[in-house]
Design brief:
The structure is a homotetramer of 341-residue chains.
Chain A (H helix, E strand, L loop, with lengths): L1 E6 L4 H11 L4 E6 L33 E6 L5 H4 L1 H5 L2 E6 L9 H8 L13 E2 L2 H8 L4 E3 L3 H14 L4 E10 L14 H4 L4 E4 L6 H8 L4 E7 L6 E9 L5 H12 L5 E3 L21 E7 L6 E7 L3 H15 L17
Parallel strand pairs in A: 1-2, 1-3, 3-4, 4-6, 5-6, 7-9, 11-12
Antiparallel strand pairs in A: 7-10, 8-9, 10-13, 12-13
Chain lengths: 341, 341, 341, 341
């Protein structure tokens, strides 16, 4: 049994990590920290964990030795405290945005300030196994992924890896859990319920992760918050560099995902679930990807869906951990989702 | 008081027409027909009308004389029976798609079959007052509008009228009432609830109405069904023919909508309602339009929101009727929407 | 035109009052106050009012003379400042709970502290026209109603007025707008969405208003928060003092509500809207009431539905104002609700 | 590995059984039948199972030998065909209502017609392990449970087993999946969404299962359909035979559920999850139970929540199967639910 710990265990990503790791057959959760809930049982923050464990939150200052330490703190907190957070940990997985971008210039352009320790950026592997499986094997510094970036990266991967994208316009529909666990005027239920809110019509920060991972083709990305708690769904309008027919598209998608345990191609001729649908992915590490070719033009519309807290955060982190530890990468990630839901 | 009648009064558009016309100060509803509910009170189909009127559905074969007759039947039914439906009516407003497209070729390309009476297409005015106010004044044949087409037409109008659109990619988010009142496997609540369904990733029929009204620039339009009953919201990514700065954009939008009683420009710096939000438009004839300029490119993202049954159907039809009858065009359309909702 | 003003105009009840009063044909809104939004347009708090008025929020300290002043402040604020709030107002309608209970002992038992000015309690008429129509005519001090109390009072009135209730057990299902406009951990969308939360399994404060208005029969009242923004629906299990057959029940309900312009009896044999349904009442001043007799016992189940912000708050307040001013009591309250919604 | 089969595998209960059994470490699913989908992959009916198995639906007439055969057909179908359905099966678990009631008179009173094979009723054990654990061990005929009955049975068990209930009034809030997989006018999304529908204000059939299992105290049960897909939540107002203080109540609930692996007592002083909440139980076999004592009377309000497809159907069936086969009863049921959701 590998010893794992979570620093910042009371938020949504921390809770999902705890849920996955408590059910993982090869690890033991030795610690979950929370400043505000130190000493309290985990179910005070995560009511679904009631009866699942006797573990209580520990204060964030007493970090126990662990084989893998996950950090799920707020923006900038990992970078500000990296040495202490890494001390005593065989490996570190940071779920924040602090170490996702390798290039300091891109970081500054995206987050509006220079990175506090740019020389450390290169230590981290971007924790999306579909893109960095080899580098993750045995890695000791891994960054988690942006949820919306992941929905887009997996949608565009089959075409981008062959340089087939001339331009892409992507609209991502997201749930309310993306904004985290802190209430705000905008997250107040009477306001947020039933919303179709142009949260980021332009300039979403995750766009930088797509550019880093897939290359710098022109990408226009919008994020719209809709009535949903978990889930992210991308509609990617791709203008290809050359005409692609249905058969070639099938080939490209199959080639990209044939060996991926967590990516499914969803493209049916009929039924209510013809294309990826995020609701049936809640709790899973799956990414569903499909496509439709516009008969009237060369445009290809690629659809993708994930659970933003699963494949878009904790799921990919656990899958990365499996690779880091040399375990089968599907261990602990066998939940396949509910339907109806 | 003008006498108005509704043929096909038991569906969603018919119900919204009834609600609006029963509250209209200048008209009297003399008849609402329904084949399946003939003889039954209106509230059997529209429970919100309980206690509002003593009118009962009449059989569809006995059409009473009326100053304006609205037809809200299924696809193809108006075209198949136009003379009878128009007989005894001072003016006709057809809410189906039968007479929206003036060009028979465009109709056939869109609906997959030749129009049954192409020579009659030219008789009808497209019933969007923001585009055809003058022609609607005194018109006796008017077609209703496509709901998604309306969300897109009003979003793109300020740029399209000046030939400023090189290419547009539009994603429309829609509610379940768009699919009408008949249950199906796909509309079954456990299936449809919480869905983010790529209903028409390519090739939505309403695209033809945009092309007709705004011109044939390259337009890629997707429709996604989300958790919502009423409402349509468009996110239109416009690649302009030349760079447009913030000030010029404000000027274009103000010029387009300055005198429009039902279009509001919504573009705030903060708050949860910075951009158009369809939920607060339920029951109204309003269209909210806003825009965001992408700092990193020339792209302009235009956002619009309507009630698909209001401005996208019955509301525009009543506004058109007001113009047809020489009434103030806002009569009977003074509901401003609810918040919170 | 009567001059009306709203003190505390930025909350949910204040916003609904503004919406109703701005559309009321016989009144002019001269003022709406807000401490935090003074000087800002009304649509900063109530986006549905955008374009509806040029009025801006005024600071709460400069109260303009008004024929009727509505007060929609927080618990205890009206009682603490009654003289100032009443000064310069022909009549006062207070929407808080401060003056709903006439008996100081009942107030203290309910709110856990003595009333600050118990001698003033008797000045106020309880603002539910269905119970106090005569006293409201010409009244100058009126209290608003509790929303859940109203759902229960109207459900039980037909039986209670004849002393036919031996015991009642009432479960009220409520929406998130009941908790007001301030965000909290419990109102955070990812937490509140889809909830079935035993908000007050026992001891809801509104129970005291039912006891005051209908008498002190044993009443057990629970409040459950469900996925809904607006609306309250009561399921009242009544154990009658004697057996009541279907015909007698119909007679009792018809007698109670025959002349009520805003109460509808809803009891159908088939269809999806056989009994009261709150969603179609959003925005209205309607209360729908229905009943079912348990074949297997003497129990009668009475169902009622209202919009908590309408008949349960601002709607009843405007109806009361109409009576106070000698207007037709339905003026300004003619919105009949949307369907589908 | 035990061989299990499902007859009627395309409905909601069948799908949930498949999901659980495909993930069960000690069984192999040898067959799932469907008349309409014979030959098609399981994910045509259950999109969450895509990629989970190569199994396809088989026609209902070719039943393979199995250690346990689950039957998830419509009302009356099992009773009409019991011998054939049981043939070749080591044990049978029927999820319909056909064999839940042991007493033919109760069956007829509840379902309005005599049971077709009343002599077989006694063969079946009622499949709720919390009530019939011993009888289930080694049983070969087991009936599934009614979902709403289960929410009520587990809520009332701690008091009923000691004869402490003089009268109970129970309101059950239910999701749309309770009505099954077939669309109807009432399940049409625009109609069902946001509903608070008095589905069965009196006379719900599951009441008979409560009477059978807990005894014939006066029970008034109402079922209200709310906005939810999965889940059932009971609010049970219990009038006890004698006064019960908080301490005694804790003792009774702890005694009842101390050794139950799937029942949790949920009763917190603060937070948004103080009492049972069905949404966090989706996909689990858990039942959460809590209570509140009315300070002002002897009434005790007991709250319970389950997943109607889990503990209320497929979960209890699998737990029963585990007992029947002599397995640890928690095998295959270790999913603990999601939060947020």
């Amino acid at each position: 049994m590998h010893r794992v710990a979570i620093v910042g265990g009371s938020g949504f990503a921390g809770g999902e990590l705890l849920r996955l790791l408590l059910g993982h057959p090869d690890v033991e959760v030795v610690q979950a920290t929370s400043r505000s809930l130190a000493g309290r049982p985990l179910h005070q923050a995560h009511p679904n964990l009631r009866g699942r464990t006797d573990l209580r939150f520990s204060p964030p200052d007493d970090l126990l030795a662990a084989d893998v330490r996950f950090v799920a703190l707020g923006h900038g907190e990992t970078a500000a405290d990296l040495d202490r957070l890494a001390d005593g940990a065989g490996a570190l997985v940071d779920l924040s945005a602090d170490f996702r971008l390798r290039d300091p210039g891109r970081y500054e352009a995206t987050y509006g300030a220079p990175h506090p320790c740019p020389e450390r950026l290169g230590e981290f592997v971007y924790g999306l196994p579909e893109l960095h499986r080899d580098a993750l094997a045995g890695a000791t510094r891994v960054s988690g992924v942006g949820c919306n970036a992941t929905a887009v990266n997996l949608a565009l991967l089959p075409l981008a890896r062959h340089g087939l994208i001339e331009r892409a316009v992507v609209e991502v529909k997201v749930g309310s859990s993306e904004a985290g666990g802190r209430p705000s005027d905008a997250s107040h239920h009477p306001v947020r319920a039933g919303a179709v809110r142009a949260y980021a019509p332009t300039g979403h920060r995750h766009q930088a992760e797509v550019a880093q991972e897939l290359g710098d083709f022109p990408l226009s990305m919008s994020v719209t918050a809709i009535e949903m708690v978990r889930g992210a769904a991308a509609t990617a309008h791709v203008f290809p560099t050359r005409s692609l027919d249905e058969k070639e598209l099938w080939g490209l998608f199959r080639e990209a995902f044939r060996d991926e345990p967590f990516v499914r191609i969803v493209k049916e001729r009929r039924g209510a679930y013809r294309y990826p649908e995020p609701k049936i992915l809640a709790g899973t590490n799956l990414a569903d990807v499909g496509f439709a070719r516009d008969e009237a033009s060369d445009r290809v519309v690629v659809l993708s869906a994930i659970d933003n807290l699963g494949k878009g955060a904790a799921g990919s982190a656990v899958q990365s951990m499996n690779l880091m530890l040399g375990l089968d990468e599907t261990r602990g990630l066998d939940f396949f989702g509910l339907c109806p839901i």
